[in-house]
Specification:
single chain; Thrombin, subunit H; mainly beta; six-stranded antiparallel barrel; Pdz3 Domain
């Protein structure tokens, strides 16, 4: 496992929300490749990783996968010991797991627990997984470290801390990395046919509505005039309740296509036409 440090320019769209200096963990999947969570290095101007020998090594390339939330770092000249990956053998609820992370360049910490849930997960930054790993482990350090199964294989990359009872951390399954490994190792972008509409807003699902809690400055929603506090009524004429139905509807559209949204604002219905953006291009 490695310690990761990244510096992001103040002008990058991710800086206002995620900060200009980020730290986390990563796990070697090849002698010169480190796998981590993508928000730690999103927009990074420079990044370095420090292994158990205490020597920082510069990251020469960052390959992002916005769909999974993973990033693969290329570290020229490194000779890390690669971890074993779980592959097709996925964890199930009740399986024991071990979380390994770090709090700095030299200090490593671990914690044990169980898988509490394997299934759908949605978050407010237009992020959706079909099979997320949720565990009873409270992460004792930074995000980006490995979630290990009973055989010591990396089954997931720890991404978020959660507040739900019995679900204290979320990990992204290793399978999602393996599905995109060839593309990430080559540094190739996501193929055009696989890209879909990105709105650039932060929807929050309540019991009976979806409220827009903010927009990405300079993004499609911002340009179209969507505002914080708007209540989303429909997308392209169809009512949506919950983040998953919303994201499924958006993924039917492509970048540069118009997404028509009805929103309730100050007791009036407004029709807002959003020209969908390309997330990969926007966050380069």
């Amino acid at each position: 496992m490695t310690f990761l440090r990244a510096v992001i320019p103040a002008e990058h769209p991710s800086a206002p929300l995620l900060g200009e200096e980020r730290a986390g963990a990563g796990v070697a999947v090849a002698p010169d490749r480190v796998l981590t969570t993508h928000y730690l290095v999103l927009g990074a101007r420079s990044a370095d990783v420090t292994g158990l020998d205490g020597k920082p090594r510069e990251v020469s390339r960052v390959s992002l996968d916005h769909d999974s939330g993973l990033a693969l770092l290329t570290v020229d000249g490194a000779d890390f010991e690669p971890a074993r990956l779980a592959g097709d053998e996925e964890l199930r609820a009740g399986d024991p797991v071990f979380l390994l992370t770090c709090t700095g360049e030299q200090e490593r910490r671990g914690a044990t627990g169980h898988v509490s849930f394997v299934g759908p997960f949605e978050a407010f930054w237009e992020y959706m997984l079909d099979r997320a790993l949720m565990t009873t482990i409270l992460n004792p350090g930074l995000a980006g470290g490995p979630l290990l199964d009973v055989r010591g294989r990396v089954a997931g990359i720890v991404s978020l801390g959660l507040a739900a009872v019995g679900r204290y951390s979320l990990a992204i399954p290793t399978r999602l990395f393996l599905d995109q490994r060839e593309r990430l190792e080559s540094g190739q972008p996501v193929p055009e046919p696989e890209r879909y509409a990105w709105i650039g807003f932060y929807p929050q699902a309540n019991d009976d509505a979806i409220a827009i809690s903010g927009v990405v400055p300079g993004g499609p929603a911002d340009a179209a005039g969507l505002q914080r506090g708007d209540l989303l009524v429909s997308v392209d004429g169809h009512a949506v309740q919950g983040l998953r139905p919303l994201y499924v509807a958006l993924r039917r559209k492509k970048p540069a296509e118009v997404v028509t949204m009805q929103v309730l604002r100050e007791e009036r219905i407004h029709v807002v036409e959003v020209v969908a953006g390309d997330r990969d291009e926007f966050f380069k």
